């Protein structure tokens, strides 16, 4: 196990980068703590694989350094980095049994035979594969083969880190939720540094203690799942995490009041230093905006109500801007006029997409 430090890392695939637009990865400074469970979350093309390849040694960054436990490994090849990797698609030897596949990384490192047997049994049991240990891998389903790949990644105790690159892509949806929690349990039990790359917020939020959210080659927020939910540092995080995502409404702020299309919304903080020329927006998650009878709270128009299983979500307009809110049990609507009650501590103000810390909280 190791801590991994990204020190001023940046990468451009073209040899003569001129400006930020030429960088697939803009400058990143970050420390992955030893034994931590991390997710690297972002949409396709945001730079996740580039960063993962820099960590694993497949790509040498244009600028900056990568340190494992303080040791500069920036130019070391993958083999010299002592990391395990699990990819989207199974990497297994079909002619070997499950047991032989799991034992392979340990045999390669000349671990004593009894120690190998013990470790293989332990990992197989944690992945619920004990009953198939002596089956040939070729006879197994794609799900089972990917579980072997996970096992081969997890079997070594001496790795600096395990990198997972969208490891549940081929897993049947019914099994996905189960494997997500298995991986979380494995992290607790095995105390390894794990970095899990995904574009799927559910996978990231279930697995990781700390999620690094990337957008357009840059890290826009690093935080616990709760922090990302309750205090998105960027409107992108607000949109990308949550279902439906955060409401982001163009606003003008005066004192402790935000105006959204002529509708006044009370704030708990003042924002005297908002940068001129930047787009000002108010962000509030649907979970903190509850529909109420007309005449209560902020006046809104209701367009429709969607049942999304765990809740009913009202599609509304605030000052002409589309938004989503919780539809409470037992509320009956008359026409399209309604009120909206907002949790004032959960209303955030953004300038140019970036969260602004207000002053003088009430
Ligand atoms: N070998 C390469 N040469 C040139 N450009 C590349 C190369 N690999 C990636 N890119 C570009 O770098 C940017 C980041 O790509 P990257 O694969 O790191 O993103 P990602 O978040 O992992 O996306 P995905 O989930 O689709 O793999 C993209 O604009 C991509 O087109």
TrEMBL record:
It comes from the Bacteria. It holds the Pfam family OB_MalK. Residues 4-241 form the ABC transporter domain. The keyword Nucleus does not apply. SMART domains: AAA. GO terms for molecular function: ATP binding. The keyword Metal-binding does not apply. Keywords: ATP-binding, Cell membrane, Membrane, Nucleotide-binding, Transport. InterPro entries: AAA+_ATPase, ABC_transporter-like_ATP-bd, ABC_transpr_FbpC, ABC_transpr_MalK/UgpC-like, Mo/tungstate-bd_C_term_dom, NA-bd_OB-fold, OB_MalK-like, P-loop_NTPase. PANTHER family: ABC TRANSPORTER ATP-BINDING PROTEIN (PTHR43875:SF14), MALTODEXTRIN IMPORT ATP-BINDING PROTEIN MSMX (PTHR43875). Belongs to the ABC transporter superfamily. This is ABC transporter ATP-binding protein. It comes from Ancylobacter koreensis.
């Amino acid at each position: 196990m190791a801590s991994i430090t990204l020190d001023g890392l940046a990468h451009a695939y073209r040899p003569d980068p001129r400006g930020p637009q030429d960088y697939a990865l803009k400058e990143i400074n970050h420390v992955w703590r030893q034994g931590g469970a991390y997710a690297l979350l972002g949409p396709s093309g945001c730079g996740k694989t580039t960063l993962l390849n820099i960590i694993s040694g497949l790509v040498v960054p244009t600028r900056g350094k990568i340190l494992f436990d303080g040791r500069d490994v920036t130019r070391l090849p993958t083999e010299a980095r002592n990391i395990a990797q699990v990819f989207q698609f199974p990497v297994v030897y079909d002619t070997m049994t499950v047991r032989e596949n799991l034992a392979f990384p340990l045999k390669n490192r000349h671990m004593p035979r009894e120690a190998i047997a013990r470790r293989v049994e332990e990992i197989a049991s944690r992945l619920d594969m004990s009953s198939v240990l002596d089956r040939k891998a070729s006879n197994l389903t794609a799900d089972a083969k990917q579980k072997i790949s996970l096992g081969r990644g997890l079997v070594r105790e001496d790795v600096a880190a395990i990198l997972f690159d969208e490891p549940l892509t081929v897993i049947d949806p019914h099994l996905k939720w189960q494997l997500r929690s298995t991986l979380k349990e494995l992290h607790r039990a095995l105390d390894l540094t794990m970095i899990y790359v995904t574009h799927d917020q559910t996978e990231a939020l279930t697995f990781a203690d700390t999620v690094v959210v990337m957008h357009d080659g840059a890290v826009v927020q690093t935080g616990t799942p709760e922090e990302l939910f309750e205090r998105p540092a960027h409107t992108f995080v607000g949109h990308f995490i949550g279902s439906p995502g955060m409401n982001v409404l163009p606003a003008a702020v005066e004192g402790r009041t935000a105006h959204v299309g002529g509708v006044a919304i009370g704030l708990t903080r003042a924002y005297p230093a908002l940068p001129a020329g930047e787009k000002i927006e108010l962000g509030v998650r649907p979970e903190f905006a509850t529909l109420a009878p007309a005449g209560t709270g902020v006046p809104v128009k209701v367009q429709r109500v969607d049942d999304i299983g765990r809740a009913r979500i009202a599609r509304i307009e605030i000052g002409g801007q589309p938004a989503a809110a919780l539809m409470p049990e037992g509320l009956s609507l008359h026409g399209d006029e309604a009120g909206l009650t907002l949790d004032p501590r959960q209303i955030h103000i953004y300038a140019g997409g970036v969260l602004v810390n207000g002053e003088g909280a009430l």
